[in-house]
Structure formats: C-alpha cells, structure tokens
Amino acid sequence: MTDKMGFITNKTRIIIQKKKKKLCAAIFFGLCLLAVTLALAFIDPVLIIAKYLCRAAYGTYVHDALKSKYAGVHISAYLFNITNAESFQSGEDQKLKVQEVGPFTYQEYRTNENLEIDQNAGVIRYTPKQDVYFIPEESVANPEDVNLTMPNIAMLSFASKLSDYSFIPRMGFNLLAAKLRSKAIVRMPAKDYLWGYNESLIQLGNKLLPAFVNFDTLGILDRLYDKKAKFSFEVSARNEDKFAIRTINKSGGLSMWGYDDPDRRDYCNSYTNVYEGIAYPTEMKPERPIRIYRSILCRFLQLDYHGRTTMWYGAEGLVYKISNNTYTYNNDTKCLCSKGICLDGVSDMSPCFLGLPIVLSNSHFLYADPKLYERIDGMKPDEDLHGSSFTIEPKIGMVLTTSFSVQVNILVRDVNFNTETSHFSNMLVPIGFFKISIYASVCQIYDSVCNVFFMHNFKKILEFVASSLYKLLAVPATLFTWNLLSKPSDFETFFIGAPLLTVLA
C-alpha cells in the first residue's frame, strides 16, 4: 500500500513538474509578448526602414524617383470670358462683366536633368523639365472648340506701361497700335489664349528687340511654362531640412526682387524655409516654417499650419493653407513692392513678365477688399472653391495632397490717352485663374516607399495581436496554476508567477 502511494505521489509530482515547466514556458512567452508590445510602443521598425529607403543617396527610392519621368501636378485653367464687350467699350456699362469658363485641365510630367547627389556637400542638384498634356476627361471641353472674348494682354499692358511716359512716347504708341489694328478686347479659341496667339505688338517687339521680347506669340500658360528658361536647383539632402531650396541658378534668393544686392537681401527674397513642394524633411513639426516656390509664381507663398487629418488609407498628415497675409504688405512681402506696384490683395509679377503690369492674386480675389474689384461683375470668392490645402505626412515628409489656386490679372493705370483702352483706366482686369492640384498620393512617384510606409498599419496590428495574446494567456495561466498546484509549498509559484501576469495584463 505504501509502495502504491509512493508510486502515485511520484507520478503526481512528475505530472506537476511537467505542468510547471509548461506554466513557466507560458509565463516566459507572455513576458516576451509584453516586451514586444512595449518595444513597439517606443520603436517603429517600419518607420526606420522607410526613412532609410527615403534618404537622399544613389540607389535609394528617392534617387530612382528623381531620375525617372513622373506625373506631377494637375493644372486646371479657368478663363474670364467678357460678356458685355461692346457696351463696356462704348461706355454704356461702367462695370466689366465676366463669366468663368473652365476647367481646361493639363497634366504635368516632370523629369530632372543633370541629376547629381553630392553627399559631401549635403545637396541634390537637378534641372527640372516639364511637359504638359491636355486631359479631356477632366475638362469642360476641348479648348480648341471654345471661343472666348478676352482682354488683350499686350495692348492693355503696353498702354498701362506708358501711362507714366511723356506725350511723345504715348503718341507714338497710339499711331503704332492704330497701324497694327490692335484691340483692347479680342475673341479667339481658349487654346490660343492659353498657349499663344498672334499679337502684332508682340511680333513687332520680337523683330525689333529679340533680346528683350524673345517670343513672337503670347499665351498665359506659354509664358508660365517658358521652355527657354532653365532653372538649375540645388536642394538640401540632409534629413533635418531635406528638399529645402539652397540655390537656383547658383543664387541664394530671388534676384528679380533684389537678392543680389546685399543691402536689400532679407527674408522676403531669400531661399530660407523654401521648398518646391515635391517633398519635405523627415520628422516634420507643425511649428516648422514652410514657404512654397515655383518659378511660374515669381514669389514665395507662405503656409500656415491648420491642424492634423487622417487619410482614408490610414496615413496621418499635417494640414497647411496659404497664409491670408500672402497678398498684403508686411515684413515678409515688402521686397515685392520694389518695382512700384504695391497694392493689398495682389502681388507684382512684372519682373517675370518683361516689366509689364501683370499681378497675381487669390482666385476671385478671395480675402481681398471688395473695393479692389468693384468695377468687375462676376467675381464670386468662395473659400471651398478658391482656397488652398496642403497635406504633408510628417514622419518621412511625403506630400499626400496639394490644392491651391492663383489668379493672373492686368493692373491697368491711367490709359485715357488711348481711345481703344480708355475705358479700362485705373482698373484691375482679371484674366483667369489656375488651380494646381495633386489628387493622389505621391505614392504614384514613390511606389516602393509607400509600400513600406503603409505597413505602419501593420505595426498597429502587431501591437494589438501581441497585447491580446498576452492578456488571453494571463487569466488561463492564473486558473491553470490555482487548479494544478496541490501542496501549500507549491503555491510559491502561484504567488510569484500568476499575479505578475494578471497585474501586468
């Protein structure tokens, strides 16, 4: 009987020892899961991989993206068709009536020529080249088939430019314009107005002064996408300010606004906190100042932080909008008044348009004083339609969305000396506005990077699975220990192992 009891006792002890080992293994596995959960709370392995792949170096995804041809922004053009040309020209109507026509949408494709990554200097060098293609499915119609009545940019601009000249130059202009039969209002297909129409004044200027007027047709998009102009960029390759513009054409600022003069050099004309908008630094903070520059703007656009958002696919982004102070006179814009055009609500573009009085503004003069466009009937400023939004993924600096618009206008001064243009005297004449957008994620450019980045959601899954398994193991392990330990001395394991699991769970 004693032998039999001893056998049972030994057998029970062996079973308990085996189950103790299993319990210890379960506790160890649970602690491992806890360690994984805690580690994932402080360390993001996916982000580390993504940042490594996004560094500026040869052979990385950034290098592959920059050296390839990729889809850039959408340009949607809206033109202001004049609906009362005859009654305005005759003086019957005091207001110019316009009607917005558009969009005529184009896709920009970009390549970067002369690409070089200089890691010793911490810079990337390239010369961007853009090709633009019409997108019929995103347009109101084919611009070749839409005839519009529009202001003659050359006629009104040249007349306004001569407003400060003496009698003799004015008289010469009147005789020349009459001889060439130039009109203040012209009618033509939208495509010609966008990409170039024959204007006798421009053609004559091109023949007489080819170094000054280096084009023989005039079109808004044709001038904005001047293929004869070359811009060699040097941007930062360092993570802390990656893609910040250092120089363009070896200049550290906007020479047309006085940067080359050391006495006039300031924040307004220097490439400080300026980005082209194709990518941004890693570990972006909301307080980081951001300004946008594209050569077609002839200036910087200041962005203000407006909070955070979550994209439908899970990526989190910082939201920015163009500052309401962009088209007002302040310390950050004072250099833009140096050419004589200084008017709240608009920004001078004359240095980028042969000195002609072309000015930039928000679309439909959004946020501007209504007095600025009181002689225009048809302006309907709307924050939803004409506002801006920039969404930036802060961890690796990807552009998630971009949408903003700018309007091109002619600032006509006193042109009463010319009968054809006299009714436009002292008036701001809107030509059209352009909405610049990136509809999809920049993943269209950085496919491989985005595949890694969107695995951030996988990190959350890992955290959930590890935490859930750990908690699921904790309660059964407690009950398992309570039921299996038959001797008081065996409760030592219970008081050490089980509470550890339950408390941490």
Provide structural commentary:
This protein is of the alpha+beta class and 505 residues long. The chain is built from 13 helices and 17 strands. The strands form 2 sheets. It has a 15-stranded mixed beta sheet that branches. It has a two-stranded antiparallel sheet with strand order 4-5. A hairpin with an 8-residue loop joins strand 6 (233-236) and strand 7. The protein is elongated and about 120 Å long.
What's the short story on this structure?
With 505 residues, this protein is of the alpha+beta class. It contains 13 helices and 17 strands. β10 and β11 form a beta hairpin.
- DSSP helix fraction: 25-40%
The percentage of residues in β strands lies in 25-35%
Shape: elongated
Order of helices and strands: HHHEHEEEHHEHHHEEEEEEEEEHEEEHHH
Q: Which stretches of 5+ consecutive residues score pLDDT under 50?
A: 440-445, 484-505
Discrete helix count: 13
Distance between the termini: 46 Å
Give the tags.
505 residues, alpha+beta, 15-stranded mixed sheet, two-stranded antiparallel ribbon, 17 strands, 32% helix, disordered C terminus
Write the layout of secondary structure elements.
Blueprint: H1 2-42, H2 45-53, H3 61-67, E1 70-82, H4 85-90, E2 96-118, E3 123-134, E4 147-151, H5 153-161, H6 167-180, E5 185-189, H7 190-195, H8 200-208, H9 220-224, E6 233-236, E7 245-248, E8 274-275, E9 290-294, E10 299-310, E11 316-322, E12 347-348, E13 358-361, E14 376-377, H10 383-386, E15 389-393, E16 398-412, E17 427-438, H11 447-453, H12 456-484, H13 491-504
Parallel strand pairs: 2-14, 8-9
Antiparallel strand pairs: 1-2, 1-17, 2-3, 3-6, 4-5, 6-7, 9-10, 10-11, 11-15, 12-13, 13-16, 15-16, 16-17
